[in-house]
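Notes to self after the Tuesday call (sharing in case useful).
The group wants a holo model before anyone commits to mutagenesis around the pocket. I volunteered. Ligand is zinc ion. Logging inputs and output together so the record is complete.
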Amino acid sequence: MHETRRRLAAEREQALARLASLTGDYDSVVAASLDTNADDEHDPEGATIAFERSQIGALVRQVRHHLTEIDAALERLEAGSYGACERCGSAIGDARLEALPAARTCIRCASVRG
Ligand SMILES: [Zn+2]
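Result:
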């Protein structure tokens, strides 16, 4: 249980660091697009900036989603339901939890869904 908490905390740290570096990039990309007052349709540079902005935006959303999954896993840990599959109720398994500490489902249910 202690090991799991440590693992989730480490995962959370990594996600936060990634978010910080992404939003740092994101802010500079947005600032650059404001500076040039770019017209996305006619200025090729403007189109590039818009593309980068949407790419980073998608990554930021992914990392934020991962953070909410980690927080949900920490709540399950507090509640004592961590490690049980949300779909079938069986144990998720140590190997899977080691690779994906925030996993909600066992590998069987995950592969059915995917
Ligand atoms: Zn399952």
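Two things stood out.
The radius of gyration is 19 Å.
Residues 30 and 62 are 19 Å apart (CA to CA).
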